[in-house]
Design brief:
178 residues, mainly alpha, disordered N terminus, 4 strands, two-stranded antiparallel sheet
Length: 178
């Protein structure tokens, strides 16, 4: 998944020939939200400043000669503001889905932003299927990481999805499809 305005065909990534599919507007919004949350975490920048910067200068804009794809601006704002608003609930919840010997505070800031965004959507965006949210955030993780991190995102968000959205999974399990 990439926020850059690349061709409409998949591009090979750095890890040796795997393809990364171009992001749709919501995918670009998710990627930008993760970057904004990371920026806020590292720099202590207030949410209003970060959202203003991204909407004015980044989403769908040209930066250093690179044209970035259009994003669903409302989706971006909703994720960033929602994560900030719900962070005191989200962090302990994410912590429960991690291994005991690996608390959330030890997780890389960028990975933490991915987990917070995905967890937020699982909690608050019931209009989007859990499997879609998980898949989208695995793609976001793949945009930044090449090793085990996308698998960690998959495992944590899947555990949380089964808790937060159990009816979505129970219905499929009852049909023998889960």
């Amino acid at each position: 998944m990439t926020g850059k305005a690349d061709q409409d065909k998949p591009a090979a990534n750095k890890s040796g020939g795997k393809t990364v599919r171009p992001a749709n507007k919501r995918g670009v919004a998710r990627l930008a939200a993760v970057q904004a949350l990371y920026q806020m975490d590292i720099g202590g920048t207030p949410v209003t400043n970060v959202v203003s910067e991204y909407t004015a200068f980044r989403l769908g804009k040209e930066i250093d000669g690179e044209q970035y794809r259009d994003a669903d601006e409302q989706w971006f704002k909703h994720i960033v503001a929602g994560v900030v608003q719900d962070q005191k609930f989200l962090d302990p919840y994410i912590h429960t889905a991690l291994k005991e010997d690996w608390p959330l505070k030890r997780i890389d800031s960028l990975l933490r932003a991915i987990l917070r965004s995905g967890s937020y959507e699982l909690l608050r965006r019931k209009d989007v299927p859990a499997k879609v949210i998980i898949s989208e955030y695995i793609d976001v993780a793949k945009a930044f990481f090449e090793d085990d991190e996308p698998g960690l995102v998959n495992g944590v968000l899947d555990r949380l999805a089964h808790e937060l959205r159990s009816p979505e999974f129970d219905a499929k399990d009852a049909d023998g499809q889960g």
